[in-house]
């Protein structure tokens, strides 16, 4: 197992609505130049922040399972499935985009959170009926243990269950305490520091992670991951567990095959 850290400079930045909405992307879209192109079923990860009230006009998606998780603020959502919904701090929306859906979003000034794409097997997902669902902060199970607060966001005990193999947690570690989890054989943990420094340790390797840095703990064997907060303050992180290797042809591979077939 190894721990790889990607600084802010190795991530990609984007903006929408004339800079009213900005994004830090630990994992950008193919061709955008981010140091990490994907981790298993984890295809894309953006940390968005609304500098002012912002609007994303209707735009299409297909195949991918897309979640938006709010750290704070407010979003109004509309889509071609007929949904008009509001999301606030700590809530989450899930679009299983299937055969295709369009949506638009309005962001209140000060809103921040994550849009994360997971890749199911697109050979099936592209033909599935698209769905939308959302969950409020009180819908998620929260465990408090040994100075840590663990909110299950996706998979496990969470009400959010995806087709793609993935689990996700929002973890706060009190100053001087630590959080431990067993990383299964063949799986990786992708993490993003939100607040405070943290020390990551697995086997004999220990690394210091600063806020906004992206971490990939890649496993080829079972191992105990220990993440500790410094003595000067709490640490908050988002952790995502996915297979280290995508277990079916990827979006990129499918596009290449289609292009080759068209050229024949």
UniProtKB/TrEMBL annotation:
Family: Belongs to the pirin family.
SUPFAM superfamilies linked: RmlC-like cupins
The organism's taxonomic lineage, starting at the top: Bacteria, Bacillati, Bacillota, Bacilli, Bacillales
Domain Pirin N-terminal: 55-117
Pfam annotation, one family: Pirin
Classification via InterPro entries: Pirin, Pirin_N_dom, RmlC-like_jellyroll, RmlC_Cupin_sf
Protein name in the entry: Pirin N-terminal domain-containing protein
């Amino acid at each position: 197992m190894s721990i790889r850290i990607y600084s802010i400079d190795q991530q990609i930045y984007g903006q929408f609505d004339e800079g009213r909405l900005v994004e830090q992307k630990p994992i950008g879209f193919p061709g955008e130049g981010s140091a990490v192109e994907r981790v298993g079923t984890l295809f894309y990860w953006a940390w968005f922040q609304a500098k002012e009230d912002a609007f994303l006009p209707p735009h299409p998606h297909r195949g991918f399972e897309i979640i938006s998780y709010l750290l704070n603020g407010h979003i109004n959502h509309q889509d071609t499935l007929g949904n008009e919904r509001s999301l606030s701090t700590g809530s989450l929306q899930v679009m299983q985009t299937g055969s295709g859906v369009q949506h638009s979003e309005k962001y209140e000034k000060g809103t921040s959170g994550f849009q994360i794409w997971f890749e199911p097997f697109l050979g099936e997902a592209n033909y599935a009926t698209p769905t939308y669902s959302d969950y409020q902060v009180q819908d998620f199970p929260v465990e408090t243990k040994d100075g840590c607060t663990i909110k299950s966001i996706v998979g496990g005990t969470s009400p959010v269950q995806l087709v793609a193999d993935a689990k996700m947690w929002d973890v706060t570690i009190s100053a001087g305490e630590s959080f431990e989890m067993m990383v299964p054989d063949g799986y990786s943990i992708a993490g993003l520091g939100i607040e405070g420094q943290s020390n990551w340790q697995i086997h004999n390797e220990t690394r210091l992670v600063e806020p906004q840095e992206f971490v990939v703990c890649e496993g080829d064997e079972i191992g105990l991951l220990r993440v500790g907060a410094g003595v000067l303050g709490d640490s908050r992180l988002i952790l995502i567990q996915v297979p280290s290797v995508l277990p079916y042809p990827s979006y990129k591979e499918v596009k290449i095959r289609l292009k080759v077939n068209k050229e024949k």
